[in-house]
Amino acid sequence: xxxxxxxxxxxPLDKSCLSTAEEIKADLEGSDVGAKVDALKRAIxxxxxxxxxxxxxxxxxxxxxxxxxxxxxxxxxxxxxxxDKRDEAFGKVSPEMTLISHKLRNNLQHPNEYIRGVTxxxxxxxxxxxxxxxxxxxxxxxxKHPHPFVRRHVFSAISAIYRLRDGQLLPHVPCIVERALxxxxxxxxxxxxxxxxxxxxxxxxxxxxxxxxxxxxxxxxPLQMAALDFFREVCVKHPYKNHQSHLFCHRYIEVIISFxxxxxxxxxxxxxxxxxxxxxxxxxxLLKAAAKTYCQLLNSQRDSKVKLIILDxxxxxxxxxxxxxxxxxxxxxxxxxxxxxxxxKKVLDLVLGLLxxxxxxxxxxxxxxxxxxxxxxxxxxxxxxxxxxxQAIHACAVVYPKVVGPVVNLLLGFLGYGDVASxxxxxxxxxxxxxxxxxLRFSIIQGLIGRLYEIKDSFICSCALWIxxxxxxxxxxxxxxxxxxxxxxxxxxxxxxxxxxxSIDSSKPDHPAMDSSTLFSKRxxxxxLNGTSARQSAAxxxxxxxxxxxxxxxxxxxxLRFLIMSGDFHLAAVVACTLTKLVLRxxxxxxxxxxxNNASAESLLIMVSILQLGNCSYLxxxxxxxxxxRIVFCIRLLCSTDDHARKVxxxxxxxxxxxxxxxxxxxxxNEKMKVKAHNAHAHPDDxxxxxxxxxxxxxxxxxxxDEVRCDLMAATGExxxxxxxxxxxxx
Length: 731
Hints:
Helix content: 55-70%
Distance between the termini: 79 Å
C-alpha cells in the first residue's frame, strides 16, 4: 500500500501463488463460491502489497456484493477497508461506493447482531466522510440495540466518525453518549461510552465523574480503569487548570483512598489505583496508601510474574521515599515464603535497603527462622537460597553490630558451606567484630573451634587460625584451639620412608629423585583432586610411601592435613605461627609445666614434620623459602627463652590490626560524608524537618540512621560482589 494509505491489518504475500487481475476477475465473475472466496483473498493480499488492480471494484460490486454467503460478506468488508475508494480523476468517492454504502446501511439494520457489530467495526476504519454521512442515522439507531455486542462497537464507531471533521458530522455526540451512558448496563459498553465522552468533551466527562463519584466503588472494572486513566490525564497533564479540575482532582483522590481502604476483588483496579496516586502527588498520605496497596497485592497474589512487577514498583518507592517504606519491611519480608527464587532475591534486596535500628532485630529474627526452615529441605535451590539468607544476615550484622551476637553461629556455619567469596567476607567481618566487640569474643572463638574442621578453603582457614592465635586468651580457649588444630592435622609425621624400602636396598637414598617417583606423584595428585582414597592410589607402590603419608588424608576432620599435603605451604606457615602463639599464651594461663612442655613438644613435632614434607620429592613442588623461614623462626622461638621476643610475638600483630581497623573506619566515614554531600536532594512534597526544634536524642538518632544507611549500601555491595582483600590478613 502507498505511504499515505492507512493500513489496518497485514497479510503475508506468498509469491508462489500470485495471480493476475484477469484471473481474479474471472473467478469473481464465476458461480463457484470457493473460487470467489479464494479470489477475494488474493485480491486483498495484492492490495495490501501495493498492487492497485484497476477496475476490480466494479467487478466486486456486480458479482460479489449480491452474494448471501457469510464468508464472502466478511471478506467483502475487509476488501472495503483496503481498497482505494476515491476516483483519482475527480478526487471524489467512486460512484460504485454508493452501492457499497447502501449495502453497509442494510448491514447496520440486519437482524443478525454479529453482522451489525462487524459492520460497525469496519466503519471505525473508514476515512471518507461522504461515504459515512448517509450511514449516521443507522449508526445512532444501534445505540438502542438490545444486544451488548452491537452497543460495544457502536460507541467505537461514533468516536471514529466524530474525530474525522472535529465533530462536524455528529455535533451532538456528547449529549447522546451521556444519555446512553446513564442507561447502559454492559461493562465493556459503558467503558467504550465513557471513552467516547472523554474524546468528545473532557468537560462533560469531568462533570459525569464528579456527579457519579459516590458510585465509583460499584462500577464495573473496565469503567473504573477508564475513569482512573482520565483522572490521571486531568491531574498530571492539565494540573489545576481551572477550579473545576482542581475540585475534580481533590474529590477523586478522596474517592480512590476510600476505595483502597475498603478493598476490591479486582487486583488490576487496585494496582491501577496505586499507580494513579503515585503519579498524581507524592504527599505522605498518598504514598502510604499506595505502598500499603502494593503490599496487600504482593501478599494476596499467587502469580510469580505479578509479584515481580509489584516488587519492582516497591523498589522504585524505596529509592525515592525510603523514609516512608521502612514501615512496610515486615510486610515485604513475608514474601520469602514464595517458592520462586527470583522473588526471594528481590525481597532480600528490598529489605536490606530499608533497615533501621528499630527494625533490624525483627528482620534478622525472620531471616534466622528462614534458615532453620531450610534445614533438611529438599528444594533444588536450597543451597543457593541458604547462601542468600546468610549473605543478608551478614549485611545486617555489618551495619548493625548489635545483631551479631544472636547470629554468630549462623555466620560461622557459612565458613564451611558457603561459596568462597561470601565465606571470605564473613571471616573478615568476624575478624573485625572480635576486635571491636569484646563481649562477642568468647562466642566467636568457641564457634571457630567447633567449626574449624568444616572449612575447606585455604584463605578462610588462614583467617580463622589467625583469629584463634590472637584472641584465644583463657585456658579453655587456648587448649581447645590447640586440640582442634592437632585433630585437623592428623597423626605425625606427614611423610616418612618405609622400613621395607630401606631393608631391601639400603644403598638407595632416603629422598629419591623426582623422575623415579613421577608415577606416584601423579597418583597422589589425582587422589587429592578426585577425593579418592590415597591408600588405593598408592597400593601398588607401598615400598616408597608409608602409612604416615596417607593416614587420615581424606577424612572430613583432617581439612588442614589435606590442604597442606596438596602443597599449600603458606597455610602450613600460618599453622606454625598459630601454634606458636597458642603455646606462648599457654605458658601464661597454664600453671602446669608438664602440660606446657607437652604442648610445646607436639607443636615442634608438627613444624618439623611440615619441613620434612616440604623437602619431600614426591609432592608437585617443594616448600617456598618464605614459608620455610617462618616455620624455622617459630621453632627457634619455642626453643628460646627470650621474653622480649615472646612479648612482641603475642602483642604486635593485634596492635597492628587495631590500627588498621581504626584507619579503615576513618576512611569509610570520610567516604560516607562525600556520598551524603553528593546525593543531597529533596522532593517538593517532602516534609520539612526543623532540626533546631528537635530534641538532642532525636537529632543523634537521625545522624545515626544516615550513617548506617551508607554502611549498609557499602556492605551490601561487598557481599553481593563477593570480593575480599587478601592483603588485609595479618599472620
